[in-house]
Amino acid sequence: MKVNVLTGGPLACVPQSIFEQKDERWCGVDYGAVELIDRGISPMLSIGDFDTATNEERLQVEEHSYQFVYRPLKDDITDTELALRYLFAHYSVDQLNLYGATGARMDQLLANLFFILKPEYQEQVERITVIDRWNEMRFFKPGHHQLKRDSQMKYLAFIPLTAVEGLVLPDEKYQLQRTDFDFPVALSSNEFVGEKATFSFERGILMTVQSCD
């Protein structure tokens, strides 16, 4: 099952074409649920503390969602992480596209990237894609992998989020022989040579970013 998740991040950073995907499965997180309903999309799940919504908006979300989870009390996770934890626990999700997770507050951006390193998400790492108007971010565990080029994107980056061993980039514009990284670093501004790019590594968690200006 593929699920699209819209958080309450800035809509200016969200590809507006996503709102045409009305027949797909959606999860609205906090004010993201309000935005979905305003555009005629009934989420299969709406979840969060809804502290940025009015009481009337929250009641409207509850009425128009197939499932509604209201968490008014703060705890140790963000609303976005609460949504992902709930989706992976209660639905058979094999692909999750996360929108609205970038832009504006830096602390929220980092929270929406770093949660992937928690042990509880290690089985789901490669199912999650973070998407905004300029970037498509994916996460990988050790092994041999292949990326398909997004025709709207020009650049390709490889970013070790942890120590990474044995990274090899064999067929990108800027190739890399087997290299170890002891700390996070951004190998930015690489590019596809053809329609696909392959890479491999032996230990750690790696993020890839396809991006455009």
What features would you describe in this structure?
The relative contact order is 0.15. The protein has 4 helices and 14 strands. With 213 residues, the protein is an alpha/beta fold. The protein is elongated and about 55 Å long. Helix 2 links the parallel strand 3 and strand 4. The protein has a 10-stranded mixed β-sheet with strand order 4-3-2-1-5-6-7-14-9-12, with helices on both faces. It has a two-stranded antiparallel sheet with strand order 8-13. The longest helix has 12 residues.
Q: How large is the radius of gyration?
A: 18 Å
SS-derived structural category = alpha/beta
| Weakly predicted, low-confidence segments | none
| Mean pLDDT rating | 95
Query: What is the 3D form?
Result: elongated
H and E order? EEHEHEHEHEEEEEEEEE
Number of continuous helical runs:
4
Helix content: 10-25%
Q: Per DSSP, what share of the residues sits in E-state strands of 2 or more residues?
A: 25-35%
What kind of sheet is the major sheet?
Answer: 10 strands, mixed
Count of extended strands: 14
- Order of neighbouring strands in the sheet with most strands: 4-3-2-1-5-6-7-14-9-12
Q: For the terminal residues, how far apart are their CA atoms? A: 31 Å
